[in-house]
Amino acid sequence: MPEGHTLHRLARLHQRRYGRAPVRVGSPQGRFSDGAALIDGQVLRKADAWGKHLFHHYAGERVVHIHLGLYGTFTEFSTVDIPDPVGQIRMRMVGADYGTDLRGPTRCEVITEAEVPDVVAKLGPDPLRPDADPSRAWNRITKSRKSIGALLMDQSVLAGVGNVYRSELLYRHHIDPLRPGTTISGDEFDAMWTDLVALMKVGVRRGKIIVIRTEDDHGAPAYGPGRPRTYVYRRAGEACRVCDTEVRTTVLEGRNLFWCPTCQT
DNA sequence: GCTAAATGTTGAT
DNA sequence: TCAACCTTTAGCT
Fold first, then answer.
1. Which sequence positions of A are flagged as catalytic?
2. Containing H/E element for A104?
3. What is the DSSP string of A7-39?
């Protein structure tokens, strides 16, 4: 579910479903009642994402700021048959033809347009945004002695990369996750950024993380029905798809990292 | 049917 | 460093 591609996909969907029209907003669970009251019935001007943050811009300078966290989800329903609220629904939006329920977010709050830049200021460049400036990420990485595996997860370095893209990107570029940022060359970074932009666009389009795409990708089998989508993520102890070495795992920055010690040196 | 872990972040200790 | 958030799913029985 939620790495950056998920949020961009949701922004695109919400824009299409609810954009430029009044939306009914409520909080069946109650924890977002005050916020919902501020925007209920207003026009949603635009839905937008930056990294893992989602913004619903309403008329009247109000913005709903959402972060899904680890298990936040949106589920959609048709307004032909509006379901009774089930479980803990933080926010329910109802438009003309579709509605959606938000459950389990880390953050769901109403802020002002003027506060949006404060949120974005804490985030590095987002590979999915056309205006992204990769040199901001490069400047952080090349000056840091922290490992590249840790830096990729830092949202102030790169916005939108999560635990799956981290492991998979490093695998695709034959980079040992424990190498310090200072040892990453400009060419290596440029190649990773370019790849990340392409991989995350696939993620938005397909709604899932697919990093094995063609047969010439490291000799692994091409993606297709029933074919694997990743090289190393959650494959600890299994054979590397390319060299047969056992995939290893360790905890880095509080999350499980996966890599092939032979392919990534 | 039950348990553990999960694509993430925040705030307390 | 760890609990909390509170849902879904994978893997077992």
1. 2-3, 52, 255
2. none
3. HHHHHHHHHHHHBTEE-EEE-TTSTTHHHHHHH
A3 touches strand B (CB under 7 A): yes
- Which tokens is A116 given? 């949006």
End-to-end CA, chain A: 30
Nucleotide nearest to A88 (CA to C1'): C6
Nearest to A103 by CA among A78, A63, A66: A66
pLDDT per position as a tens digit, A80-109? 999 988 888 999 999 999 999 999 999 999
Strand B within 7 A of A126 CB: no
pTM above 0.90, yes or no: yes
Tokens of A107: 């953050």
A149-CA/B11-C1' distance, Å: 25
A167 touches strand B (CB under 7 A): no
Phi first, then psi, for residue A108 (nearest 5°) are: -150, 105
